[in-house]
Description:
Elements: H1 10-13, H2 31-45, H3 71-74, H4 90-104, E1 111-115, E2 126-130, H5 136-146, H6 154-172, H7 179-185, H8 218-230, H9 236-239, H10 245-259, H11 282-293, H12 302-308, H13 321-340, H14 344-361, H15 369-387
Parallel strand pairs: 1-2
Helix pairs in contact: 2-11, 4-6, 6-8, 8-10, 13-14, 13-15
Amino acid sequence: MRLGALGARPRGHARTARLTHGRPGIFGFSGIESCNAMAVVEGFRMQKTAVSAGAPRRARSGRFSWETLPDEDLLELRFKDLNLSVEGTWLAHRLRSLNDELESRGLMPAHAWLSDEWFSPSNTPGISFPFYLAHPRLIKLERKMVRDVEGGTQRDCMRILRHEAGHVMQHAYGLHRRRRWQTVFGQSSKPYPDYYRPNPTSKKYVQHLRRWYAQSHPDEDFAETFAVWLTPRSSWKKKYADWPALKKLQYVDDLMSEIADERPILTRREEVDPVGKLNMTLGEHYQNKIEHYAVDTPASFDRELRRIFSDDPADRGAPSAAEFVKRNRPDIKKSVSKWTGEYALTLDAVLDDMIDRCRALKLRAAGSDRSLRQQLTVLLTRKAVRSLYDSSRRQVFAV
Length: 399
């Protein structure tokens, strides 16, 4: 699947759906938030002095010549100019860990390369890592541009890799052609939706990646189920004991035992859209991503904010509500993201809107910090869960 567009599906589902593997968030993007990130992108386009057209090479010390470039200059580089490779990076170790897990089950190993985002093609048994994970400088740029680094920790990287490995197994062994597979998961040929309405309380699907991603499409349902099954010490039999999803896990367990040590039908190793052949600049890449998240108007929280904070002149001596939100945003954002699966990029945008409205309304944080923090967290969480059922917003799948 393609994170980030977790995948458009040209070339025969060559890239399966994401936000980069990505994502307009549950609330969308505020105009202010879009402008902040877009300003950096526009800055690189206004530069009068262009970066050399030649592809940067490794310095004699082994460092890349672009490592010390300011963001504006780095954004002018094309993907192919980065001269990146999976080899010699921490990603190679993560791939080895994944393949150890697969081979211990008698399944074929996957190969990997770098592209613009996460995805697993349907025409080769491999996985694309997003380019930014190959270097700390690019991780820093990704975090600045979209406020999130998908797969940026070893734990998160392995979670995504196991999901993508599910797609690899599906296509390498032609599993979606089996009648039993279709009965359990549905038709793989079903078109991917532009958005989906997950039921957060459903026990018919496993929960592996955030956003209840298994509910988006039969292929993702299988990939998520496979990922849970593959994860070492996941205790899936116990965890899903009273869930209807257990039948899917048991089917995957039986199916993997059946195909173990079989020769897959898809063995040719190719690299789809490798980073070394992409002519798009980093600035164009992020501009497209940010524009995809953008919405025209920010959400209004005035009524709810007035219920939480005070505009009573008697409380004018209390701390500013805007400053209170700014001070507590890391904890609030962490809690809401944990329980809703919402992306940090989106939550930051909404919190920015809240801060602006608190300032415009001249609200004061009258009351205990703990109570105010809880009320803000509940407000943000309620908005997030409610919007999961809103078909009017644009949605990008998260792996």
